[in-house]
Amino acid sequence: MNQAGVGLLLALALVAMPAATAHAAHPAKKGSDAAAKDKGKDKAGGKAGDKAGGKAGDKAGGKAGEEAPAEGDKAPAAGEAAAEGEEEGTEEGPPPEEGGASTLEELCKIDPENCVVIDMKKAAARELEEEMYATQQIYALRTGRVEINPYFGLTMNDQFVSHNGPGLALNYYITNVIAVGANANIYHAMNSPSDFNFETSRAGRIGMPITEYSWTANANFTYVPAYGKFAGFGDFIFHWDFYLLAGVGAISTRPIAVIDPDNRTFSYEPTVTFGAGGGVRIFFNRWLALMFEVRDYIFFDRLENPSIATGYDASGTPNAQNEDTWLADSRSFTNNVQAQIGLSMFLPLTWEYKLPK
After folding, report:
1. How far is 128 from 82, CA to CA, in rounded Å?
2. Counting Cβ atoms within 10 Å, is residue 123 exposed (0-12), middle (13-18) or buried (19+)?
């Protein structure tokens, strides 16, 4: 019985030695020691029987010195996160409050002027306006669409006779900026000599050779180098594009008998014409636009001979009635600059973008 009592006291002494050793080794860590002691006591209370029952001999035999620091190390390991936090707080400063110093409240305390507080309920309930993109998709996509363009043409550069008339253009867009197509104008019965021509001829007692047109037809190549948008009528956004075109075709013309109308009459004859110009379209929606275009139809025109042949031929017919004397010896280089105003309609009316926004 005495030996059993002595063994029990020895086991209790071995259990108490690590706590005392750790306390002696770290006297400055009071907060850490308090936590370590409480946990050490729990271990001592719960594992005293185990240590006393089976491990007392081993600890007493030769590992007393080794177990002391080992047990001291194990004590904080049971609450490793808390013990490390306490040691760091003890060495570097007081531990931060829950949430850390990087929370929004702490930042607002440091710099209240730049602190933005958002009421998430109000933000979620607000009305959202239409999203705007830095680079938007093209409003009126032209690729693979057919443009039908009825218009009316007005003469811009002929002071002596006007050549006004309706026209129609058809274009197919191979890409979004390149198109091929054709256009035609009708002038027949709409040509009219100007008052300026009458007054000039009367004042100078001379006749100015003039011509009239019947029709013109051209094959065209169109290129769209620029497109954009502008605001108008409040918040309404107009989309526009600018295009250049060139073409080749034919025009039917005839001189108007001014010098010798008693003997001369002319018929329409076609001649080759070249054209170049540019225009602007302003879109009302994705398939309808207002079009304004200026085009120069260039050709070599036949003009009336300003001189009247005199004399008679071998048969006694006046040379003035000979058709070979009615026209000028050479053709005249002519520019028919025309302003065309009309509507552009694109088919199909709708399409799908290959790529989403």
Report:
1. 48
2. exposed
Q: How far is CA 96 from CA 26, 83, 102, 103, 141, in A?
A: 23, 15, 10, 11, 60
CB 185 within 8 A of CB 275: no
Look at the block and give the residue holding tokens 């019965």: 189
pLDDT (0 to 100) of residue 64: 39
CA–CA separation, 170 and 346 (whole Å)? 10
| Residues 153 and 90 occupy one common structural domain | no
pTM score above 0.85: no
Q: Cis before residue 261, ω within 30 degrees of 0? A: no
Same domain, yes or no, for 206 and 334? yes
- Residue 249: phi and psi, rounded to 5, are -170, -145
CA angle 142-148-151, nearest 5°? 125
Q: How far from 183 is each of 27, 340, 349, CA to CA, in Å?
A: 103, 12, 21
Q: Of 345, 347, 320, which is closest to residue 169 (Cα–Cα)? A: 345
Residue 116 placed within a domain: no
Q: What is the mean pLDDT of residues 252-277?
A: 91
Q: How far apart, in whole angstroms, are the C-alpha atoms of residue 244 and residue 171?
A: 13
Residue span of the structural domain in which 265 resides: 146-347
Contacts of 90 (CB under 8 A, 6+ apart): 28, 29, 31, 32
Specify whether the CB–CB gap between 242 and 224 falls below 8 A.
Answer: yes
| pLDDT for position 19 | 52
Q: Which helix (H) or strand (E) holds 61?
A: helix 56-61
Q: Tell me the percentage of the chain whose pLDDT exceeds 70.
A: 64
